[in-house]
Amino acid sequence: MDAGLVDGDLETIAFGNKLSGVTNMRTPLFLLVGFLLLAASALLGKLFSSNYPGATYAATWTFVVLWLVISGANMWMGVAKAGYSLKEELPIFLLIFSVPTVIALFLKWRII
Predict the structure, then answer these.
(1) I need a labelling partner for 44 at 20 to 30 A (CA). Which of 1, 12, 86, 96 fits?
(2) Closest by alpha carbon to 31, among 70, 58, 5?
């Protein structure tokens, strides 16, 4: 039998599977991306706030909507491609979506 790649191996390499350690880093990486996207949107909101007073408000809500789409796409990939059930993937989605979103709303409320 050939030891080469077979159908589905590329998806396992790209998305990991339940038994590998690859998925252990996926959640922290998504959180890091969320915080970087939050920083970029907050910076853009601050830069444009002198000419457009509602820029920080728009930047915050644009971040929340964009992050919802990205987090939802991650959950869909976990269910459709990696083989997780919705029951397994939903807590990860809630973590990935809620942590940067709560921080964004807190920053908008208190600092920005």
Answers:
(1) 96
(2) 70
The whole-angstrom separation of Cα 32 and Cα 100 is: 9
pLDDT tens column, 26-63? 899 999 999 999 999 999 999 999 999 999 999 999 99
Is the CA virtual torsion 101, 106, 108, 112 positive or negative? negative
Residue 4 belongs to a domain: no
Neighbours of 60 (CB within 10 A): 21
**Overall number of domains in the chain:** 1
**Domain ranges, residue 36:** 9-110
pTM (predicted TM-score): 0.76
Contacts of 1 (CB under 8 A, 6+ apart): none
